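Sample pair:
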Amino acid sequence: MSRPVSRVLTLLELLQAGGTRTVAELADRLGVGERTVRRYVDHLVDLDIPVESVRGRYGGYRLGPGHRMPPLMLTDDEALAVLLGLVAGRRTGITAAAGTAGETAAAKVRRVLPERLRRRLDSVLDSLTFTASPGGTAAPETAVLLPIADAVRHHRPVSIRYTASGGRRSERTLYPYGLVAHSGRWYVTGRDLSVGEDRTFRLDRVADARVLPGSFEPPDGHDPAERVLTTLATAPYRHEVTLRVQGTAEQIRARLPGSVATVTEAPPASVTEADPETGAATSTGAGTGTDIGHWSRVEIRAERLDWLPGVLASLDLPFVVERPDELRDLVAALAGRLMDAAQHRA
C-alpha cells in the first residue's frame, strides 16, 4: 500500500476513535504537515465519508453521521471483540432480534480481515465451547423493535397489533416503560390503556408497532426487568406451590430465581424466654432476644412438580411445604431414596 493511501486510512482510524481531533494533533500522529492533513480530509470527503470541520479555538475534524456506514478500521483486539460479541449474542439470544444480520455481519468482518488475523480469530472460535446448550429464541421484527425502543426512550405512546398465546388478536395502545431481553426472548412492559393496567408483552407476538403523537410520564421506581420476572413467575400453571423456607430472599433466589418463584421475606422471629427472677414466660420480641432466623414465603407456579424436591434439597435450608400434598409425597420419596443410598455399603 502506498504511503499516502496508508496515511489516509490511518486518518480515518483516528477519527473513528471519536471526538474532535485538532489539525496539529492529526499532523503529529501522521507525521505530515497540516496542509497535508487537510488534503487527506478532502480525500475522505471525496469517498463520501462524512468528515466534519469544527471551527473555534478547540476546532479540528470529527467524523459525523452519514447516509451509510464508512469503512471501519479495527485493531486486532477490536476485531476479536466484535466477532466474540456476535457469537455470544447469537448464543444467548440477545442479538436474535437482528435475524440473520448477526451472521452476515460476522461474515463481512471475517472477509476483510488480513489472513494472519483471520487465522488467529478462527483458532479462537473453533476452540470455543459453551457450558450451556443454546436456548430457543423468538426474534421480534426489526420494524417492531425499533419503533417501540424509540417510544420507550422518548416516552411516546405506541399502537401495537398483538397475538396472545391462545391465538386471539387485538390492537392495543401502550405506554411503554422498558424493553427486557430474557432467555432468548424480548419483552416490553408498560401501561395497557385498553384495560387500564400494567402489562407485559412478548415482542415476537407483535405484528405491527406505530409510535403515536403525545407523551406520558413513566411512574417512579418502575423496574421493567423485575416486572417481567414477576410476570413469568406468576403466570398460570397446573400447580400452585406455597412454601415456607428458613432463609433470606438472597439465599433462596440462588436456586429459585425471580422468573421461577416469588419470595416474600418476613422479619426474623425470636425465642420466648423465661424471666430468671419470676419464672414467667416473656417474649423477647424481634431483634431483642435469641434470633431464630428469617422465614420467607415462597410461591411457585409449575406445570410439573418432579423437579422441585431436588431443588429444595439443594437449598440446604429448613422448609415447610404448605401445598400441594403431592409435593410433600415427592419430597418424602426423595428423602427415602437418599437415606437408602446413604446406608448402602458396597
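Residues 325-343 form the longest helix (19 residues).
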